[in-house]
Design goal:
about 200 residues; alpha+beta; 10 strands
């Protein structure tokens, strides 16, 4: 049961809307990461605006989670031959946590898998799924920039998920809709079985 594994005080921290001050160092890192992704041709069809939004949200969520949980960021230099250099974002009490982002009003964790049918643009999670064996938890959240001048972001963590059972709850999306992703994570079933916790709606 996930609630027995994770500290109750940490669950309470993650369940509260959090205002996060973006340091000048983090802001510079966001800009540098955007440039590196564009230079390495890894935008995956995203416009400059979409790319910056995604990088901003991802890094702000990682850093705010690390601060809230008194964790340590995974600062290993990326090496595609070493999964531990990119498979997770931070560690808390020796447990590895990967942080994923969704939209502020999203009620489901939707995503695409390569080779599958979809009409909505969402992140491909194929690499992530291949690394679940070395991850302990998945923390899913969203953010927005509340004050651009003062660099203040609002953070909402939505779900805490057991990584080892994640694949068990992957479902194919309903293809009868006009717009859809290829797959989604069945959060309701996971919560019923104790493999996920709803932090915020």
């Amino acid at each position: 049961m996930l609630r027995k594994e994770f500290k109750e005080e940490d669950i309470k921290k993650l369940s509260t809307l959090y205002k996060f001050d973006i340091s000048s160092e983090l802001y510079d890192k966001i800009e540098q990461t955007v440039l590196e992704i564009k230079f390495n041709l890894q935008s995956n069809g995203r416009s400059d605006e979409e790319l910056r939004r995604d990088v901003f949200s991802g890094l702000v969520l990682e850093h705010s989670a690390c601060k809230l949980l008194s964790g340590e960021l995974n600062d290993q230099k990326f090496n595609h031959k070493i999964r531990e250099s990119y498979a997770y974002d931070l560690t808390v009490d020796g447990k590895r946590i990967e942080v994923k982002r969704v939209g502020w009003n999203d009620n489901w964790f939707n995503f695409n898998l390569k080779g599958s049918q979809f009409t909505l643009k969402r992140p491909f999670l194929d690499t992530f799924l291949n690394n679940l064996d070395i991850i302990d938890y998945i923390l899913v959240g969203s953010s927005y920039l509340e004050d651009e001048e003062k660099l203040k972001a609002v953070i909402k963590f939505k779900w805490l998920i057991d990584a080892k059972s994640f694949k068990h709850y992957i479902k194919e999306s309903n293809k009868n809709k006009n717009s859809y992703t290829s797959h989604y994570y069945d959060i309701r079933s996971a919560v019923s079985n104790g493999d996920a916790i709803i932090l915020n709606q």
